[in-house]
Amino acid sequence: MQEQTRILHSIPVDPLTGSISTPIYQTSTFVQEAPGVHKGFDYARSNNPTRKVLEDLIAVLEAGKNGFAFASGLAAIDAIIKLLDAGDEIVAVDDIYGGSFRLFTHIYQKLGISLRYVDTSDVHNVAEAITPKTKLIWLESPTNPTLKISDIEAIAAIAKAHQILLCVDNTFASPAAQKPIKLGADIVIHSATKYLAGHSDLIAGLVVTNSQSLGEKIKFIQNASGAILSPFDSWLVIRGIETLTLRVKQHSENAQKVAAFLQTQDIIKTVYYPGLPTHKNHDIAVKQSKWFGGVISFDLVVDDKELAVQLVSSTKYFKLAESLGGVKSLICLPCEMTHKSVPEEKRYASGVNNSLIRLSVGIEDADDLIEDLRQAIALVNRQILLSTVKTPAHVL
Ligand SMILES: Cc1ncc(COP(=O)(O)O)c(C=O)c1O
Known about the structure:
Elements (H helix, E strand, L loop, with lengths): L2 H8 L38 H13 L4 E5 L2 H9 L7 E5 L4 H11 L5 E5 L4 H7 L4 E7 L11 H10 L3 E5 L17 E5 L13 E5 L2 H14 L5 H11 L2 H19 L5 E5 L9 H7 L6 E6 L4 H8 L6 E2 L9 E3 L11 H6 L7 E4 L5 H21 L10
Parallel strand pairs: 2-3, 2-4, 4-5, 5-6, 10-11
Antiparallel strand pairs: 1-7, 6-7, 8-9, 9-12, 11-12
Helix pairs in contact: 1-2, 2-8, 3-4, 9-13, 11-13
């Protein structure tokens, strides 16, 4: 069975009414026939029929055992870190999403969990960073925002050899393009806010585990900590997933064209997109993912924040906003927006410089998107010619 058929037919018809759309069970509790005798649902933090459909669906999509839906991507990440104990260590990708960095550093480090950030796009760095205290390897592939690609299968082999859990934040690829559990990961998490929901209309997180025992631990944490997804938002994510493969294909095809256009522009220094043969780990991306997604980053030859601000403020179809993965295109300046919480030194070390711009390429017509960028780049070019912009010493 092909993926799109599997998705649509993994969403059950409502057994009570025959409703083809999953009913929204907007309830806090469930009437019991006798104490402890019920239909599998007792209290809606512990379980909810609408949420359960989503949880079962994401488990199927990610080729895992159990799925869990959380109130946000960060709540999903938080649940994973709660598997650890004080004294444990995480080896994490250096170019990590700013919110994950903030959670790890400012919440969990002070509770005794230490972090080692390494460039996981080189497998050797991961092997070298592991110590007897390492209990979790944390990957994003592609990363947010410089689209680094890590070899999930090779890193999973290292994790297994050391009996360390491997968790992959699969937000950027989505299960339509990449299935980390099939490549050996133990846990997959998503900001379902992005491609899974797909319409920039909610905040949600998902976790998928590869084993029943890990699933039971996450279930306990989900219920004990309580950051569950509401029935309505669960329904919206289910509806988004129904068109996931169609959208991701279109996002990816558009992004490939936009990335090729950006590469022809003189003011642009580097275009980061895994679908480009010039990408450092393009061959690994080809090996482990079906499509390359809709996110592209690029920086300017002149690493000047003001110029970058002008560019991101001059597009018409690319709306200036945080987030990604929705049908409408977005543009953002990570150093001032998504990655503001990452210290400048660390930002630069992982390639997030002041002129790095991130695009979330939507499903509009690719030619319109390219024209939009062309006119914004022309405005910045004019500004460079007219002004006396000084190139910061560190980019010379
Ligand atoms: C890669 C990645 N992981 C996790 C998150 C956090 O998700 P949420 O905003 O749904 O909490 C984000 C948000 O941008 C993200 O980009």
